[in-house]
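Lab notebook, bench 4. The sequencing result for the construct came back, and we need a structural model before the next group meeting so we can plan mutations. Quick request posted to the team channel:

Model the 3D structure of this chain.
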Amino acid sequence: MSPDPTRTEPEIAEERGEFAKGWKVLLAGVLGVMCGASPIPYNIIGFTVGPLREEFGWSQTEAVVPITLFGVIASVLAPVFGWMADRFGVRPVALWSLLAFALSFAAVALTPTGDPRAALYIYYSLWAVIGLMGIGSTPVTWSRAINLWFYKNRGLALGILLLGTSLAAMIVPRFAVEVIEAQGWRAMFAAVALLPLAALAVAFFLFREPRPEERPRAIESASGRLTGVTLGKAMTDYRFWIIWLSIACIATAFGGAFINLPTMLALRGVDAKTAASVMGILGIGIFAGRLITGALLDRFWQGFVAFPLLCLPAASGWILLGDSITFPLAALAGFLLGFAAGAESDLIAYLTGRYFGMANYGRIYGMLYMPFGLGSAASPVIYAQAFDRTGSYDPVLRLAIGAFVVGGALLLLLGRYPQTLPEAEGEDEPAPAGLEPA
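Done. Here's the predicted structure in C-alpha coordinate form:
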Protein backbone atom coordinates (compact mmCIF):
# COMPACT_ATOMS: atom_id res chain seq x y z
CA MET A 1 0.00 0.00 0.00
CA SER A 2 1.46 3.36 -1.00
CA PRO A 3 1.82 6.05 1.68
CA ASP A 4 -0.95 8.61 2.08
CA PRO A 5 0.24 11.73 0.19
CA THR A 6 -1.81 14.00 2.46
CA ARG A 7 0.23 13.06 5.54
CA THR A 8 3.18 15.28 6.29
CA GLU A 9 6.57 14.08 7.50
CA PRO A 10 6.01 15.53 11.02
CA GLU A 11 2.67 13.66 11.24
CA ILE A 12 4.30 10.38 10.19
CA ALA A 13 7.13 10.93 12.67
CA GLU A 14 4.66 11.72 15.45
CA GLU A 15 2.68 8.54 14.75
CA ARG A 16 5.82 6.39 14.84
CA GLY A 17 7.05 8.21 17.94
CA GLU A 18 3.98 7.46 20.06
CA PHE A 19 5.07 3.93 20.88
CA ALA A 20 8.69 5.01 21.29
CA LYS A 21 7.64 7.55 23.91
CA GLY A 22 4.79 5.68 25.56
CA TRP A 23 5.74 1.99 25.61
CA LYS A 24 6.88 1.99 29.23
CA VAL A 25 3.60 3.53 30.35
CA LEU A 26 1.69 1.04 28.20
CA LEU A 27 3.60 -1.89 29.72
CA ALA A 28 2.85 -0.68 33.24
CA GLY A 29 -0.79 -0.17 32.25
CA VAL A 30 -1.11 -3.73 30.90
CA LEU A 31 0.21 -5.11 34.19
CA GLY A 32 -2.02 -2.74 36.15
CA VAL A 33 -5.13 -3.86 34.27
CA MET A 34 -4.12 -7.51 34.54
CA CYS A 35 -3.58 -7.34 38.31
CA GLY A 36 -6.31 -4.83 39.13
CA ALA A 37 -9.89 -5.09 40.35
CA SER A 38 -11.39 -5.52 36.89
CA PRO A 39 -10.38 -9.12 36.09
CA ILE A 40 -9.08 -10.73 39.30
CA PRO A 41 -12.33 -11.03 41.31
CA TYR A 42 -14.18 -12.53 38.33
CA ASN A 43 -11.37 -15.01 37.70
CA ILE A 44 -11.28 -16.45 41.23
CA ILE A 45 -14.90 -16.33 42.45
CA GLY A 46 -15.92 -19.57 40.76
CA PHE A 47 -13.16 -21.52 42.51
CA THR A 48 -14.25 -20.38 45.98
CA VAL A 49 -17.78 -21.79 45.78
CA GLY A 50 -16.90 -25.41 46.56
CA PRO A 51 -14.60 -24.67 49.53
CA LEU A 52 -17.07 -22.15 50.99
CA ARG A 53 -20.01 -24.54 50.71
CA GLU A 54 -17.92 -27.30 52.29
CA GLU A 55 -16.76 -25.16 55.23
CA PHE A 56 -19.86 -23.06 55.95
CA GLY A 57 -22.72 -24.85 54.23
CA TRP A 58 -23.60 -21.74 52.21
CA SER A 59 -25.78 -22.10 49.12
CA GLN A 60 -24.49 -21.62 45.60
CA THR A 61 -26.19 -18.23 45.41
CA GLU A 62 -24.79 -17.08 48.76
CA ALA A 63 -21.29 -18.00 47.66
CA VAL A 64 -21.43 -16.01 44.39
CA VAL A 65 -23.44 -12.98 45.55
CA PRO A 66 -20.20 -11.12 46.46
CA ILE A 67 -19.26 -10.74 42.79
CA THR A 68 -22.57 -9.00 42.08
CA LEU A 69 -22.13 -6.85 45.21
CA PHE A 70 -18.62 -5.95 44.09
CA GLY A 71 -19.74 -5.19 40.53
CA VAL A 72 -22.58 -2.89 41.56
CA ILE A 73 -20.48 -0.90 44.04
CA ALA A 74 -17.59 -0.56 41.59
CA SER A 75 -19.90 0.58 38.78
CA VAL A 76 -21.56 3.26 40.90
CA LEU A 77 -18.17 4.57 42.07
CA ALA A 78 -16.55 4.56 38.61
CA PRO A 79 -17.47 8.23 37.89
CA VAL A 80 -16.05 9.26 41.29
CA PHE A 81 -12.68 7.65 40.63
CA GLY A 82 -12.77 9.05 37.10
CA TRP A 83 -13.23 12.55 38.52
CA MET A 84 -10.32 12.00 40.91
CA ALA A 85 -8.10 10.93 38.00
CA ASP A 86 -9.07 14.10 36.11
CA ARG A 87 -8.54 16.34 39.12
CA PHE A 88 -5.49 14.89 40.83
CA GLY A 89 -3.83 13.00 37.99
CA VAL A 90 -4.18 9.37 37.00
CA ARG A 91 -0.91 8.22 38.58
CA PRO A 92 -1.73 8.74 42.28
CA VAL A 93 -5.28 7.45 41.85
CA ALA A 94 -4.21 4.28 40.03
CA LEU A 95 -1.29 3.50 42.35
CA TRP A 96 -3.08 4.15 45.64
CA SER A 97 -6.11 2.19 44.45
CA LEU A 98 -3.92 -0.72 43.36
CA LEU A 99 -2.39 -0.79 46.85
CA ALA A 100 -5.80 -0.56 48.52
CA PHE A 101 -7.14 -3.33 46.28
CA ALA A 102 -4.25 -5.62 47.23
CA LEU A 103 -4.75 -5.02 50.96
CA SER A 104 -8.54 -5.35 50.90
CA PHE A 105 -8.38 -8.48 48.75
CA ALA A 106 -5.86 -10.07 51.12
CA ALA A 107 -8.12 -9.15 54.05
CA VAL A 108 -10.76 -11.65 52.84
CA ALA A 109 -8.39 -14.30 54.20
CA LEU A 110 -9.36 -13.02 57.68
CA THR A 111 -12.97 -14.24 57.30
CA PRO A 112 -13.58 -15.98 60.66
CA THR A 113 -14.45 -19.61 61.19
CA GLY A 114 -17.36 -20.61 63.38
CA ASP A 115 -20.89 -19.27 63.00
CA PRO A 116 -21.76 -19.52 59.27
CA ARG A 117 -24.22 -16.59 59.39
CA ALA A 118 -21.78 -14.23 61.07
CA ALA A 119 -19.01 -15.34 58.72
CA LEU A 120 -21.29 -14.71 55.73
CA TYR A 121 -21.96 -11.10 56.71
CA ILE A 122 -18.27 -10.45 57.34
CA TYR A 123 -17.39 -12.08 54.02
CA TYR A 124 -19.87 -9.83 52.20
CA SER A 125 -18.55 -6.76 54.03
CA LEU A 126 -14.98 -7.51 52.99
CA TRP A 127 -16.08 -7.84 49.35
CA ALA A 128 -17.92 -4.53 49.63
CA VAL A 129 -14.64 -2.92 50.74
CA ILE A 130 -12.93 -4.38 47.66
CA GLY A 131 -15.54 -2.65 45.51
CA LEU A 132 -15.14 0.63 47.41
CA MET A 133 -11.34 0.67 47.15
CA GLY A 134 -10.44 -1.16 43.98
CA ILE A 135 -12.22 0.62 41.12
CA GLY A 136 -9.31 3.02 40.64
CA SER A 137 -7.17 0.06 39.55
CA THR A 138 -9.44 -0.72 36.57
CA PRO A 139 -9.35 0.65 32.99
CA VAL A 140 -11.25 3.71 34.28
CA THR A 141 -7.84 5.12 35.27
CA TRP A 142 -5.25 3.27 33.19
CA SER A 143 -7.01 4.12 29.92
CA ARG A 144 -6.90 7.86 30.66
CA ALA A 145 -3.11 7.80 30.64
CA ILE A 146 -3.00 5.77 27.42
CA ASN A 147 -5.39 8.21 25.73
CA LEU A 148 -3.06 11.05 26.77
CA TRP A 149 0.03 9.36 25.29
CA PHE A 150 -1.53 8.05 22.05
CA TYR A 151 -3.72 9.57 19.34
CA LYS A 152 -2.71 8.25 15.91
CA ASN A 153 -2.31 4.75 17.39
CA ARG A 154 -4.89 5.14 20.16
CA GLY A 155 -7.09 2.21 19.16
CA LEU A 156 -4.19 -0.24 18.99
CA ALA A 157 -2.70 1.06 22.24
CA LEU A 158 -6.01 0.66 24.06
CA GLY A 159 -6.35 -2.83 22.60
CA ILE A 160 -2.91 -3.74 23.96
CA LEU A 161 -3.76 -2.17 27.34
CA LEU A 162 -6.91 -4.26 27.69
CA LEU A 163 -5.04 -7.45 26.89
CA GLY A 164 -4.30 -7.33 30.61
CA THR A 165 -7.70 -8.87 31.31
CA SER A 166 -6.96 -11.69 28.86
CA LEU A 167 -3.60 -12.34 30.51
CA ALA A 168 -5.33 -12.46 33.89
CA ALA A 169 -7.73 -15.10 32.56
CA MET A 170 -4.76 -17.20 31.43
CA ILE A 171 -2.74 -16.92 34.65
CA VAL A 172 -4.90 -16.15 37.69
CA PRO A 173 -7.30 -19.15 37.69
CA ARG A 174 -4.50 -21.72 37.56
CA PHE A 175 -2.54 -19.92 40.25
CA ALA A 176 -5.65 -19.66 42.45
CA VAL A 177 -6.51 -23.35 42.06
CA GLU A 178 -2.99 -24.45 42.94
CA VAL A 179 -2.97 -22.36 46.12
CA ILE A 180 -6.45 -23.55 47.15
CA GLU A 181 -5.44 -27.18 46.70
CA ALA A 182 -2.22 -26.69 48.65
CA GLN A 183 -3.18 -24.21 51.37
CA GLY A 184 -6.92 -23.54 51.23
CA TRP A 185 -9.15 -20.71 50.01
CA ARG A 186 -8.02 -18.19 52.65
CA ALA A 187 -4.39 -18.55 51.60
CA MET A 188 -5.50 -18.06 48.00
CA PHE A 189 -6.81 -14.55 48.72
CA ALA A 190 -3.53 -13.61 50.41
CA ALA A 191 -1.43 -15.12 47.62
CA VAL A 192 -3.37 -13.57 44.74
CA ALA A 193 -3.08 -10.18 46.49
CA LEU A 194 0.65 -10.35 45.77
CA LEU A 195 -0.11 -9.82 42.05
CA PRO A 196 -1.38 -6.21 42.40
CA LEU A 197 1.56 -5.49 44.70
CA ALA A 198 3.94 -6.69 41.96
CA ALA A 199 2.14 -4.53 39.38
CA LEU A 200 2.35 -1.60 41.79
CA ALA A 201 6.15 -1.95 41.98
CA VAL A 202 6.42 -1.78 38.17
CA ALA A 203 3.92 1.06 37.84
CA PHE A 204 5.70 3.13 40.49
CA PHE A 205 8.73 3.42 38.20
CA LEU A 206 7.11 3.38 34.74
CA PHE A 207 3.57 4.75 34.91
CA ARG A 208 2.85 8.46 34.52
CA GLU A 209 0.91 10.98 32.48
CA PRO A 210 2.80 12.77 29.71
CA ARG A 211 4.15 16.22 30.34
CA PRO A 212 2.46 18.91 28.21
CA GLU A 213 5.27 18.83 25.64
CA GLU A 214 4.92 15.03 25.32
CA ARG A 215 1.20 15.01 24.51
CA PRO A 216 -0.08 14.43 20.96
CA ARG A 217 -0.91 17.81 19.49
CA ALA A 218 -4.38 16.65 18.41
CA ILE A 219 -5.68 16.50 21.98
CA GLU A 220 -4.64 20.05 22.86
CA SER A 221 -5.83 23.54 22.07
CA ALA A 222 -3.55 26.19 20.63
CA SER A 223 -2.75 27.30 24.20
CA GLY A 224 -1.54 23.81 25.10
CA ARG A 225 -4.50 22.87 27.31
CA LEU A 226 -6.40 19.62 26.98
CA THR A 227 -9.58 19.89 24.95
CA GLY A 228 -12.93 18.29 25.66
CA VAL A 229 -16.43 18.90 26.95
CA THR A 230 -17.54 18.83 30.58
CA LEU A 231 -19.50 15.89 31.96
CA GLY A 232 -22.60 18.07 32.12
CA LYS A 233 -22.36 18.99 28.44
CA ALA A 234 -21.59 15.39 27.49
CA MET A 235 -24.78 14.27 29.24
CA THR A 236 -26.83 16.73 27.19
CA ASP A 237 -25.35 15.30 23.96
CA TYR A 238 -27.47 12.61 22.30
CA ARG A 239 -24.28 10.73 21.42
CA PHE A 240 -23.52 10.12 25.11
CA TRP A 241 -26.85 8.35 25.61
CA ILE A 242 -26.53 6.39 22.38
CA ILE A 243 -23.18 5.03 23.61
CA TRP A 244 -24.67 4.43 27.09
CA LEU A 245 -27.60 2.44 25.71
CA SER A 246 -25.38 0.49 23.32
CA ILE A 247 -23.07 -0.55 26.17
CA ALA A 248 -26.05 -1.51 28.35
CA CYS A 249 -27.54 -3.69 25.60
CA ILE A 250 -24.30 -5.51 24.81
CA ALA A 251 -23.16 -5.99 28.44
CA THR A 252 -26.54 -7.28 29.61
CA ALA A 253 -26.75 -9.71 26.71
CA PHE A 254 -23.14 -10.89 27.00
CA GLY A 255 -22.47 -11.41 30.72
CA GLY A 256 -24.98 -14.19 31.28
CA ALA A 257 -24.06 -15.91 28.01
CA PHE A 258 -20.41 -15.96 29.06
CA ILE A 259 -21.06 -17.28 32.59
CA ASN A 260 -23.60 -19.88 31.47
CA LEU A 261 -21.93 -21.02 28.24
CA PRO A 262 -20.65 -24.33 29.71
CA THR A 263 -24.18 -25.15 30.93
CA MET A 264 -25.69 -24.21 27.55
CA LEU A 265 -23.24 -26.50 25.80
CA ALA A 266 -23.95 -29.34 28.25
CA LEU A 267 -27.67 -29.06 27.46
CA ARG A 268 -26.78 -29.54 23.78
CA GLY A 269 -24.79 -32.71 24.49
CA VAL A 270 -21.30 -31.20 24.76
CA ASP A 271 -19.18 -32.89 27.46
CA ALA A 272 -17.34 -30.92 30.16
CA LYS A 273 -13.86 -31.28 28.65
CA THR A 274 -15.04 -30.06 25.27
CA ALA A 275 -16.86 -27.15 26.96
CA ALA A 276 -13.63 -26.22 28.74
CA SER A 277 -11.86 -26.16 25.38
CA VAL A 278 -14.58 -23.89 24.01
CA MET A 279 -14.06 -21.50 26.93
CA GLY A 280 -10.37 -21.41 26.08
CA ILE A 281 -11.25 -20.54 22.49
CA LEU A 282 -13.53 -17.79 23.83
CA GLY A 283 -10.50 -16.36 25.63
CA ILE A 284 -8.54 -16.41 22.38
CA GLY A 285 -11.44 -14.54 20.77
CA ILE A 286 -11.25 -11.82 23.42
CA PHE A 287 -7.51 -11.53 22.85
CA ALA A 288 -7.92 -11.24 19.07
CA GLY A 289 -10.92 -8.92 19.35
CA ARG A 290 -9.02 -6.36 21.38
CA LEU A 291 -6.01 -6.15 19.09
CA ILE A 292 -7.86 -6.30 15.78
CA THR A 293 -10.59 -3.88 16.85
CA GLY A 294 -8.02 -1.41 18.14
CA ALA A 295 -6.07 -1.51 14.89
CA LEU A 296 -9.24 -1.09 12.81
CA LEU A 297 -10.40 1.90 14.88
CA ASP A 298 -7.16 3.69 13.99
CA ARG A 299 -7.97 3.30 10.28
CA PHE A 300 -11.75 3.46 9.91
CA TRP A 301 -14.76 5.27 11.38
CA GLN A 302 -16.03 3.42 14.45
CA GLY A 303 -19.48 2.64 12.98
CA PHE A 304 -17.96 0.62 10.14
CA VAL A 305 -15.95 -1.30 12.73
CA ALA A 306 -18.39 -1.56 15.64
CA PHE A 307 -21.63 -2.63 13.96
CA PRO A 308 -20.42 -5.81 12.23
CA LEU A 309 -18.20 -6.83 15.15
CA LEU A 310 -20.91 -6.35 17.79
CA CYS A 311 -23.31 -8.43 15.67
CA LEU A 312 -20.96 -11.43 15.89
CA PRO A 313 -22.39 -12.72 19.19
CA ALA A 314 -25.85 -12.73 17.56
CA ALA A 315 -24.44 -15.47 15.33
CA SER A 316 -23.20 -17.22 18.49
CA GLY A 317 -26.71 -17.07 19.96
CA TRP A 318 -28.18 -18.54 16.78
CA ILE A 319 -25.69 -21.43 16.91
CA LEU A 320 -26.50 -22.09 20.58
CA LEU A 321 -30.22 -22.33 19.76
CA GLY A 322 -29.56 -25.48 17.73
CA ASP A 323 -30.78 -28.84 19.01
CA SER A 324 -27.27 -30.30 18.95
CA ILE A 325 -23.88 -28.71 18.48
CA THR A 326 -20.72 -30.19 17.02
CA PHE A 327 -17.35 -29.09 18.37
CA PRO A 328 -16.54 -26.87 15.34
CA LEU A 329 -19.83 -25.01 15.77
CA ALA A 330 -19.35 -24.70 19.53
CA ALA A 331 -15.82 -23.41 19.00
CA LEU A 332 -17.08 -20.87 16.46
CA ALA A 333 -19.79 -19.69 18.87
CA GLY A 334 -17.23 -19.25 21.64
CA PHE A 335 -14.75 -17.42 19.44
CA LEU A 336 -17.32 -14.97 18.06
CA LEU A 337 -18.69 -14.29 21.54
CA GLY A 338 -15.19 -13.58 22.84
CA PHE A 339 -14.20 -11.46 19.84
CA ALA A 340 -17.19 -9.16 20.36
CA ALA A 341 -16.44 -8.88 24.09
CA GLY A 342 -12.93 -7.73 23.28
CA ALA A 343 -14.27 -5.25 20.75
CA GLU A 344 -16.72 -3.71 23.24
CA SER A 345 -14.01 -3.10 25.86
CA ASP A 346 -11.93 -1.21 23.30
CA LEU A 347 -14.89 0.85 22.14
CA ILE A 348 -15.83 2.29 25.53
CA ALA A 349 -12.44 3.91 26.05
CA TYR A 350 -11.96 4.87 22.40
CA LEU A 351 -15.36 6.50 21.87
CA THR A 352 -15.07 8.49 25.10
CA GLY A 353 -11.83 10.11 23.99
CA ARG A 354 -12.80 10.70 20.36
CA TYR A 355 -16.28 12.17 20.88
CA PHE A 356 -15.82 14.02 24.19
CA GLY A 357 -12.10 14.77 24.45
CA MET A 358 -9.60 14.35 27.26
CA ALA A 359 -10.19 17.33 29.55
CA ASN A 360 -12.80 15.46 31.59
CA TYR A 361 -12.19 11.96 30.26
CA GLY A 362 -12.26 10.17 33.62
CA ARG A 363 -15.63 11.54 34.64
CA ILE A 364 -17.25 10.75 31.29
CA TYR A 365 -15.63 7.32 30.97
CA GLY A 366 -16.76 6.50 34.51
CA MET A 367 -20.37 7.27 33.57
CA LEU A 368 -20.08 5.12 30.45
CA TYR A 369 -18.45 2.31 32.46
CA MET A 370 -21.51 2.24 34.72
CA PRO A 371 -23.89 0.44 32.29
CA PHE A 372 -21.09 -2.00 31.46
CA GLY A 373 -20.58 -2.90 35.12
CA LEU A 374 -24.27 -2.98 36.03
CA GLY A 375 -25.23 -4.96 32.91
CA SER A 376 -22.44 -7.47 33.51
CA ALA A 377 -23.52 -7.87 37.15
CA ALA A 378 -27.23 -8.29 36.35
CA SER A 379 -26.90 -10.48 33.26
CA PRO A 380 -26.02 -13.80 34.98
CA VAL A 381 -29.05 -13.43 37.25
CA ILE A 382 -31.32 -12.71 34.25
CA TYR A 383 -30.09 -15.82 32.43
CA ALA A 384 -30.42 -17.95 35.58
CA GLN A 385 -33.97 -16.74 36.22
CA ALA A 386 -34.95 -17.50 32.62
CA PHE A 387 -33.61 -21.03 32.96
CA ASP A 388 -35.25 -21.62 36.35
CA ARG A 389 -38.64 -20.54 35.01
CA THR A 390 -38.60 -22.22 31.59
CA GLY A 391 -36.01 -25.01 31.90
CA SER A 392 -34.21 -23.58 28.85
CA TYR A 393 -31.93 -20.70 27.88
CA ASP A 394 -33.61 -20.37 24.48
CA PRO A 395 -36.02 -17.51 25.39
CA VAL A 396 -33.29 -15.30 26.83
CA LEU A 397 -30.92 -16.19 23.98
CA ARG A 398 -33.48 -14.94 21.47
CA LEU A 399 -33.73 -11.66 23.38
CA ALA A 400 -29.92 -11.49 23.55
CA ILE A 401 -29.62 -11.88 19.77
CA GLY A 402 -31.83 -8.82 19.36
CA ALA A 403 -29.89 -6.89 22.01
CA PHE A 404 -26.57 -7.58 20.27
CA VAL A 405 -27.88 -6.30 16.94
CA VAL A 406 -29.55 -3.24 18.48
CA GLY A 407 -26.44 -2.42 20.53
CA GLY A 408 -24.24 -2.48 17.44
CA ALA A 409 -26.72 -0.60 15.25
CA LEU A 410 -27.04 2.23 17.77
CA LEU A 411 -23.41 3.20 17.19
CA LEU A 412 -24.17 3.88 13.52
CA LEU A 413 -26.13 6.92 14.72
CA LEU A 414 -23.14 8.68 16.30
CA GLY A 415 -21.96 10.49 13.20
CA ARG A 416 -18.50 11.78 12.42
CA TYR A 417 -15.88 12.42 15.07
CA PRO A 418 -15.70 16.09 16.12
CA GLN A 419 -13.00 17.91 14.16
CA THR A 420 -12.28 20.25 17.06
CA LEU A 421 -13.17 20.24 20.74
CA PRO A 422 -13.23 23.25 23.07
CA GLU A 423 -11.24 23.79 26.21
CA ALA A 424 -13.69 22.51 28.80
CA GLU A 425 -15.25 25.09 31.06
CA GLY A 426 -13.70 24.79 34.46
CA GLU A 427 -11.18 22.21 33.28
CA ASP A 428 -8.96 21.09 36.10
CA GLU A 429 -5.39 20.44 35.13
CA PRO A 430 -4.15 17.61 37.33
CA ALA A 431 -2.64 18.95 40.53
CA PRO A 432 1.02 18.24 41.24
CA ALA A 433 0.96 14.81 42.80
CA GLY A 434 3.19 12.68 44.99
CA LEU A 435 4.36 9.20 44.17
CA GLU A 436 6.56 10.55 41.39
CA PRO A 437 8.86 8.03 39.71
CA ALA A 438 12.48 8.11 40.60
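The two ends are 43 Å apart (CA to CA).
Will bring this to the meeting.
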